[in-house]
Amino acid sequence: MTVLITGGAGYIGGHAVLAFLDRGETPVVLDDLSTGSRSAIPSEVPFIFGDVGDTSLLLQIIEAHKIDAILHFAAKIVVPESIADPLAYYLNNTAKTRALLEAAVKGKVRYFVFSSTAAVYGNPNRATVNEETVPAPLSPYGMSKLMSEFMIRDVSAAYGQKHVILRYFNVAGADPKGRHGQSTANATHLIKVAIETALGRRPFMNIFGNDYPTPDGTCVRDYVHVSDLAYAHLLALDQLRLDGVSRTLNCGYGRGYSVREVVEAVRRVAGTNFEVRQAPRRPGDPASIIASNDQLVRLGWKPELHDLSVIVQHALAWEKSCVIRV
Ligand SMILES: NC(=O)c1ccc[n+]([C@@H]2O[C@H](COP(=O)([O-])OP(=O)(O)OC[C@H]3O[C@@H](n4cnc5c(N)ncnc54)[C@H](O)[C@@H]3O)[C@@H](O)[C@H]2O)c1
Ligand SMILES: O=c1ccn([C@@H]2O[C@H](COP(=O)(O)OP(=O)(O)O[C@H]3O[C@H](CO)[C@H](O)[C@H](O)[C@H]3O)[C@@H](O)[C@H]2O)c(=O)[nH]1
Predict the structure, then answer these.
(1) For a FRET experiment, which of 70, 74, 240, 299 has its CA 20 to 30 Å from that of 54?
(2) What does the record give as cofactor (predicted)?
């Protein structure tokens, strides 16, 4: 039984690769390195350079490595970019997921674990969202993922494949042992941007919008440590192999921080002040989105790295180490 990780050269997929290695399993990685990095993949892990939309390549990989489970991380992930270029997102995230599913069905892959997103919920008018909250994405990115969710459920119903759809909230932090972190050039994620600014790699950063209906007017998000999230994948796959029950699960801590609170946490942990400018709202941003995580916790998820200071510390340590490596 071998696991295929698509997008394993990227930020979250790379942490999933480490989680499997840490428990003695060696996965196989497929990645086109569009945003991922070859150096993120440990040398003992078989790496195939290629596209998830290439059904015949996928069939070869499934057969050659006896793949019984696919963890599908590969995607484009930037919300504003998806608004500017929706067709690129519907191609890479939706059409290519369809091609991957076709290969999985033809290759008789039994289990499919999908990286979905809190962006499927749009701008929910409630304190927390659970998996039954009706999805209403605000962006083509969120819609491209929601369309994939529908395909995955239909494929399970028709062909008997079992799946877990994991809806990640805002993923942040880095491997506590310093082996991997977020390396994407021109990253747009808040914690990454704030840390780059704290380290003087950006002259200033923007806060997008201060007139949201939130306690301090800035957007509220549920930041989840990437290593706790990687562990959730192992748990979800183990459970799927055990009981064969397909599930959709929120992956967040159930607690929100505003943009201002995150900026303050980065200032505190980094021990430095940096320039923050107020900017207009960014298109496609919901005011507040926080997970209800009861279902994942019931499966046995025990997050250990939920403190925002710990998330920032690990991200900061990774960012500093990146310069040392260059
Ligand atoms: N980062 C977050 O906060 C967040 C939140 C919710 C969901 N997600 C989801 O998690 C997944 C991983 O995101 P990430 O933050 O690690 O992004 P990332 O950009 O670091 O990783 C994506 C990886 O997929 C690869 N890739 C992209 N298109 C490909 C294709 N067609 N064929 C092969 N490889 C391809 C890239 O080279 C990269 O290595 C994505 O599906 C994303 O939608 C991320
Ligand atoms: O320089 C910045 C960067 C971000 N923000 C704000 O910080 C919040 C978080 O923004 P991120 O870009 O870090 O994350 P998003 O909430 O936009 O989206 C992230 O989480 C989503 C799930 O909630 C998606 O899955 C998506 O892939 C991933 O980028 C937003 O209000 C954003 O406007 C700033 O103010 N300044």
Answers:
(1) 240
(2) NAD(+)
